[in-house]
Amino acid sequence: MNELSDRAILQCAGELLVACGLLSAGEAQQLLTADHCRKICSDGSTRRFWRVGRVGKALCVIAAPAGSSMAELAESGSAWKIGRHLREKGVPVPELYGWNEAAGVLLFEDLGDVRLHDFIARPEDILRRDEGAVLNFYHAALEQLANMQLTGPDGFDPTWCWDGSRYDVPLMLERESGYFLRAFWQGLLGQEETGGVEEEFRHIAEVAGKAPTDFFLHRDFQSRNIMVKDGRVRFIDFQAGRLGPLGYDVASLLIDPYAALTPQLQEELLGFYGAVIAAHRPGCEEHFFKYYKFLALQRNLQIVGAFAFLSKVRGKDFFTAFIHPALLSLRDRLADNSFAEYHRVRALVNRGLASLKIA
After folding, report:
1. What's the Cα-to-Cα distance from 268 to each of 208, 274, 275, rounded to whole Å?
2. What are phi and psi of 66, to 5 degrees?
3. What is the mean pLDDT of the chain?
4. Coil, strand or helix: which one is 2?
5. The CATH number of the domain where 42 resides is what?
6. What domain range is 33 assigned to?
């Protein structure tokens, strides 16, 4: 199937704007021009985005697939169906206004440009940064995450998921430890010999796979997917959502290389989240703490693999600077006594750091 042109996408979006009552036909024709409709960049996604607005007022964001393959259209459908479901549960996701199933075009609420990452990453803001406010945003994000994890499974339809409906061991081996080996070890570093780590990766995944998976899993819950609008946190990029364990999304936020939270702050936030879960669903915190380290390791492997792929294959230089911090985080996590038996994995990660020549 051929890729829809930008012009065809904007025409489709105009029809949706009229159909959902946001604009009249005349207004849609006027606003969907270069003066009022601006293409915006994404991070790792291949999807295309535009911001539409009147003078001084945001109207909506248009999202469209890069192409028209079945997988790309299915991803769009997941965003629409999962997003509407989460919003009905009171999860702070953007309002979704319209969806064209045939073209995969979505209209959703414009949440602005401010991400949680912006409060901790901009050098010019360091002296003005309010550490208490940043901590409050993290607390709010974790409270709303718990709400999403606990209420999301109620009425959730696994057929909404476009690339798998549950977080499990095969996914970990293919898209996390396997991704790490293919994209980082082989793709970025050009190494072939893995040192026999596959058996250890399988064992780690099997331990992580014992965590209960009857919760909603965002699967990319990090500071650049958390917007801040009107003083409130809002969640985006939930289209890969599925059922999964509690610990994975928490790890995604706390070990996020974009934020580089200190170990002390990670521990404080970990305890805060445990108290939130215990208050809402007593007993869940036991499983959470039992499997957290193994799920955090899985997430760390995924991060390194993703950053390597995005920087080398897709040429997105933004991610290159975060590979080394993510690898250091992986090394430090493997130093925990929980991973004492995984000698080959530790050796391979150390070789990876040496190969980057910036250890």
Report:
1. 23, 10, 11
2. -70, -35
3. 93
4. coil
5. 3.30.200
6. 6-108
Residue 11 in tokens: 């025409």
Domain boundary among the residues 90, 108, 126 is at: 108
Tokens representing 96 are 């979704």
Work out the widest C-alpha separation in the chain, in whole angstroms.
67
Residue bearing tokens 């890729």? 3
Q: Is the sign of the CA dihedral 347, 338, 259, 126 positive or negative?
A: negative
Q: Token pair of 189, please?
A: 């570093």
323 and 201, same structural domain?
yes
Alpha carbon distances (Å) from 183 to 107, 163, 173, 306: 33, 19, 13, 7
Structure token pair of residue 8: 């065809």
Domain membership flag for residue 188: yes
User: Is pLDDT above 80 for 343?
Assistant: yes
pTM: 0.94
8: left (phi over 0), alpha (psi -120 to 50) or beta: alpha
pLDDT tens-place string over residues 248-302: 999 999 999 999 999 999 999 999 999 999 999 999 999 999 999 999 999 999 9
Asked if pLDDT for residue 1 goes beyond 50, the answer is no
The pLDDT confidence band at residue 123, using thresholds 50, 70 and 90, is very low
- 32 — phi, psi (to 5°)? -85, 60
What does the alpha-carbon distance between residue 355 and residue 359 come to, in Å, rounded to a whole number? 8
Inter-residue long-range contacts of 178-183, CB under 8 Å, 24+ positions, other chains counted: 179/301, 179/302, 179/305, 179/306, 179/309, 180/301, 180/302, 180/304, 180/305, 181/305, 182/305, 183/305, 183/306, 183/308, 183/309, 183/312, 183/313
Tokens for 303? 């991060």
